[in-house]
Amino acid sequence: MYHTFYEPQPALQEYISGVFVLDIDFTLPGSLSPIYTFVPSHTRFICFYLHDQVKVRKQNGEFIARERAIIIGPQLTPVTLDLGKKHQTVIVVLKPCSMYRLLGVPLEEIVDRDFDARLILGREIDEVLEKLMEARTDQDKNEVVQNYFLCKLSELKPALPFDRAMLQQVNAMGSLSMDYLASQSCLSVRQFERKSLERIGLPPKLYARMIRFTNAYRFKEDFPHITWNEIAYRFGYFDQMHFIRDFKYFAGFIPHLLKKEDLATSVRFQTLAN
């Protein structure tokens, strides 16, 4: 497996965190497992699949193949991914509120849903996919997607103080108070809560819990030898039960069921997205 991360061009930095290209051949001896449980994350993505189509299973359903380009809305429940035999993807990582600014759709309407990008962004996505398929290098792929999103700048909904406040919340790993964030957004607390549903898709307190959970989960992916007790303390959980309750709420299972052996064969998408 190899992946390459690219910083966004200066003009894109207001709404894109970065682009990474991931390439995995699961047929090689000793390769990682193509089955991956993706737990909820506060980060929003737009994904372009260039080799085998990705299949997704939600809860106890069947695996269903996704389109080549998908937009992933806010996620509250884990999903299982089948990445196929050969997986190559270009993933655009968006900053908080940027999906709303790009799509113009209240994100509370697309919680736990993903969409064929062509249905929302139009047939121009076919041209992007064609260029990505023809691109010879990772740098070429990066240039294709960044040039596309540069063309979307004029269509973005305006940034608000709320967006900057939520970026502060992400950088603070979910530790900032609602009163402080509402003040930074130039809104009352009630207005702030409504704006969060529209631009983030979730109530602000739940979003803060998700940010902290995501960071704890990513840390475990990076450092599987660190105990869950240490991780709970590191990320500011009041006690072990508080951490277990949040972990089970988002991941669907208790933390001790995630074994070091599982992480050793995992793609670790959460860490890559960071």
TrEMBL record:
GO terms for molecular function: DNA-binding transcription factor activity; sequence-specific DNA binding. It comes from the Bacteria. Keywords: DNA-binding, Transcription, Transcription regulation. It holds the Pfam family HTH_18. The keyword Ribosomal protein does not apply. Signal peptide: none annotated. Residues 157-261 form the HTH araC/xylS-type domain. PANTHER family: HTH-TYPE TRANSCRIPTIONAL ACTIVATOR RHAS, HTH-TYPE TRANSCRIPTIONAL ACTIVATOR RHAS-RELATED. This is HTH araC/xylS-type domain-containing protein. It comes from Pedobacter antarcticus 4BY.
